[in-house]
Write a structure and sequence with these properties.
It is a single chain. The protein is of the alpha+beta class. The chain has two domains: 74 residues; 124 residues, Sandwich (Immunoglobulin-like), CATH 2.60.40. Helix content is 30%, strand content 34%. The strands form three sheets. The protein has a five-stranded antiparallel β-sheet, with no helix packed on it. Strands 2, 4, 5, 7 and 8 form a five-stranded antiparallel β-sheet that branches. Strands 10-11-12 form a three-stranded antiparallel β-sheet. Strand 4 and strand 5 form a beta hairpin. Helix 1 runs antiparallel to helix 2.
Length: 221
């Protein structure tokens, strides 16, 4: 007997993994054709096989193939719609000042970068550390403002020895403590949004040369 067509979940989930469904369909269809060919070759000439069953199977495979293609179209439309919605939301931030918990800034040659750092409570000591894209510390020093709240920090783009660093992405981290021990501390970017664009398939806002994702926004003014 010819094997039956495997049922898929695509009808109930139009945006299921279409590539996986297509791959499985191709494998099942090849198996079906191999079995059908073997049965035709080995059938009894005096009692030929009933073609009704495998004809129905071919019809089912054709139906599944069309369903997978339709799911692929729906998935493409859904992705395009989602990207369009994100961009529509993003352009509303242009011209506004936002704060975010994105700690990585993009530095140009000879440029500078500005971050915010936030202390959960007043600290007795706080250290700001800047690392490059490879995780190497290029600059570290004590924070000037130790009071609870959010403070601005501007970096001139030079390492701890006073040498200008190269262009690239740099990440600020902050550690702080008071008499009771370590306290909550975090770093992020702030600035005026100049544009919105797509990077690596995601919608981001541009603050100067730096990119901020929509889900990292913590304040808008």
């Amino acid at each position: 007997m010819v094997t039956s067509v495997a049922n898929t979940n695509s009808a109930s989930n139009p945006t299921s993994n279409t590539a996986a469904d297509s791959s499985k369909f191709s494998t099942d269809y090849t198996t079906f054709l191999n079995l059908l060919t073997a049965q035709v070759k080995n059938q009894d000439p005096l009692s030929p096989m009933d073609t009704t069953e495998w004809t129905n199977q071919l019809v089912q495979y054709s139906s599944v193939e069309q369903q997978i293609k339709a799911n692929g179209y729906l998935e493409t439309i859904a992705n395009a719609s989602g990207a369009s919605g994100s961009m529509t939301s993003a352009v509303n931030y242009i011209g506004k000042t936002i704060g975010s918990d994105e700690p990585t800034a993009t530095l140009t040659d000879g440029g500078s970068a500005t971050w915010n750092y936030t202390l959960g409570s007043t600290a007795t000591s706080a250290t700001l550390t800047i690392k490059d894209a490879d995780g190497k510390t290029v600059w570290s020093d004590s924070a000037d403002d130790l009071t609870a709240g959010t403070h601005s920090f501007a970096w001139d783009g030079k390492d701890s020895s006073g040498n200008a660093v190269g262009a690239g992405k740099y990440t600020l981290s902050v550690s702080a403590a008071n008499a009771d021990g370590a306290i909550d501390a975090s770093a992020g970017l702030t600035g005026i949004v100049t544009s919105a664009q797509t990077e690596n398939g995601s919608t981001v806002l541009k603050i100067g040369n730096s990119s901020v994702s929509l889900d990292s926004i913590t304040s808008v003014s």
